[in-house]
Every structure is written in C-alpha cells, then in structure tokens.
Design a protein that fits this description.
The protein is an alpha/beta fold. The chain is built from 12 helices and 11 strands. The strands form 2 sheets. Strands 1, 2, 5, 6, 7, 8, 9, 10 and 11 form a 9-stranded mixed β-sheet that branches. Helix 7 packs parallel to helix 8 and helix 10 (244-251) runs parallel beside helix 12 (275-292).
Length: 295
Amino acid sequence: MNQDMLAKVRSHTGFIAALDQSGGSTPKALLAYGVAEDEYDGDDEMFDHIHAMRSRICTSRSFDGGRVLGAILFEMTMDREIDGRGAADYLWNVKGVVPFLKCDKGLADEEHDAQVLKPIPDLNGLLERGLRKGVFGTKMRSVIKAANQSGVDAVVDQQFAIGKQILAFGLMPIIEPEVDIHSPTKAEAEVMLKAAILRNLDALDDGVEVMLKLSLPSVDGFYSELISHPKILKVVALSGGYSRSEANEILSRQPGMIASFSRALTEGLSAQQSEAEFDATLDSTIQSIADASST
C-alpha cells in the first residue's frame, strides 16, 4: 500500500470527489452537464463525453490536492489519460489527489429489501491493473432499501468479504452499504447497518483498516463510533440524492465525517460554460464541500 497516500488519507483534510459514473448513470450525468443524448451515438461517444467532463474537472485550477483529498475513478477513466498522463498518475503526481477505483459491476436484483453486488468477474485481474496504474484503493456500492435484517446482513457481509480480497492486494477498500435516503425505515435500517458493520470490524485482524462510505445519517453523530474505531481509516458520506446545499448542511453536523459526493459535486457545471465560468463554479462548489467536511 502506498504509504504517502495512506498518510494523506489518514491525516489530511478535504473530501473525496466521486467521478465514477458508470454506464447506467452516465446519460443522466451528461444531461445535467448540458450534453443531451442526441449529441452522441453509442457508448463509445457517450464515454468520450463523460471523460471530457471528468478531465475538465481534474485539470481545472480549482481542483487541487489541498481541498480534494481523493477521487474515485470509473474503470474506463483509470485506463484513459488526463492531460497526457494516466489518470491515476495525473491525479497523484500532478494534483496531489489520492486515486481510488470503482471496482463493482453494479447491483443485483432486489432481495430482502436490499441489492447486493453483482458478481465481479476477474476482480483479481482488475486489482492487479489498478495497482500497476497507481490507485490507492477501491470502492463498491450496495443499496439497502428498508430495515430488513436479512438484507442488511447480506449487503454488509458481502462487502467485507470482498473487502478482504482487496486488502490482500495491498489496496484500501471503501465499503459502501448505501441506505436509500427515501426509505420510510431509514433510521431503523441505519441501526441495523451500524451493528452489522461493527460485527464485521470485530472479525478483522488487529492492525487492518478499511474505509466506509455511508449515507448521511438520520441522527446527527450517529456514526461517531465508527469514525473513531481503530479499524476504520476514514468514514466518508455520499450525497444520495440530496442537493448540494442539503448534503453540505447535514454533513456539517457530522464531526469527523467527510464528503464523497458525485452529483452534488458536478451540480451547476455545464459544457457550455467558459473556462472562467466553469472554474469559478467549481471553485465555489469545492470550497463549500471542503468546509462542510472540516467539522
């Protein structure tokens, strides 16, 4: 594991930019950015447009390692270049931003009010490629829809099982058991989730650490026990459908929790903006998220 990156994640302020929209979420992300579906033909052109958007964000003077601690990349982004360098290499060696890789292949069908991860074919091969390209860790997202103990346990146990496989490669897993913010039993699901996470943390060997990416909690400070846990490197928050202002406001009340926002990060950015307008919008966004993450 890259010790310089580990030290930065452990001690540095800032937040993690989630730039990992995949095939299913890319059209919506592009539409919000001002690129309509009739402006590209097929997946190749779609991914060219999303890579251009991500590159524009990463190369902006406003995107800096002082406020942006890390960035989560889609696999195809990791395999491409930003400003003539491999994406992970550019982020770390030019911007001082720690690169992570989205390693999951999406969600399985809902069962027991939850969606576990689909199988990840040749995960070992993907992890080896990530190591060669200079990523520090990975991220994988499951979803809990309601307070169903069977579903919660299935999500968390699978996440930790795959997390151990990732740790064995010397990479840092971000375990992401998202709780749907629209769930009518969100608070109850979070109680079950925290208990399942603590149970799995207890089963890890001493000295082993993982990261968590969680929905913003219904009760302020609810995840403080996880944030201070000796086997947790960092707890980050997803915006989960909240607007940026809502997400920032809730996050600012969670001491020790930092942002890992996707849609809330790109909110307000447009392909039609001039470079000055784009940089100014991104600068304001980054500052607001960094401020919310500093509590």
